[in-house]
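Q: Structure tokens for this one, please.
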Amino acid sequence: MRWPKSLICAVLAGGLTPVASTAEEIGDAIAGKAVFTQCKGCHEVGEGAENKSGPHLNGIFGRSAAGLEGFKYSKSLVRAGNSGLEWHADTLSAYIENPRAFASGTRMSFRGLKDPEDRANVIAYLRGFSDNPRDIPEADPTAKATDHSVDPNILAIQGDPEYGAYLSSECTTCHQIEGGDEGIPSIVYWPYEDFVVAMHAYKKKQRPHPVMQMVAGRLSNDEIAALAAFFNKPN
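A: Here is the predicted structure, written as tokens:
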């Protein structure tokens, strides 16, 4: 049974008086506290939270990617923030599902939470540490987390690397085939599945970047698989 959001926030805040709320639930914050133990090695949250190898997560909702002053972020998250990425329930869910597929070059080594319920719960937990947690559901009308996983049938497609090499010319006008990542992230030797997940996230506009959204939107499932096969082990 899920608790009402207003009561969850009261518990997390240390005894605030519950208020009525009709906003859409995003998860179980109590369960999310348990899920967050997987994150505690790198992130702190709550009173007195400080940056560790990862930034503290107080006030994460509505914050621009790489937007916490005083923390040195990876270039990929800085680029994402400069492109307009903000952390809301939907973008947080997409990121923590597969961090490296969402932001290539991120220093976050965590492999991700594949269970959509776990993601919804930990996001509900983090919401309690925002400046105005009871206002967030109204400010975040799309707050209910969704499963951004790619259909297993799509992941099972065996891409043709030769066809991928033929298609790659549009990619290599920006991404260096030698693997350099000055200014633009390298996509050479990307794990096959991560490449496919990232391209489908662009295609569904779950991952922010207007040019990549346009490029991915023109590609079929087979073409994405072919590019993934080529860039995984380029000749």
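A few notes: The chain has two domains: 5-139, 152-232. The chain has a mean pLDDT of 79.
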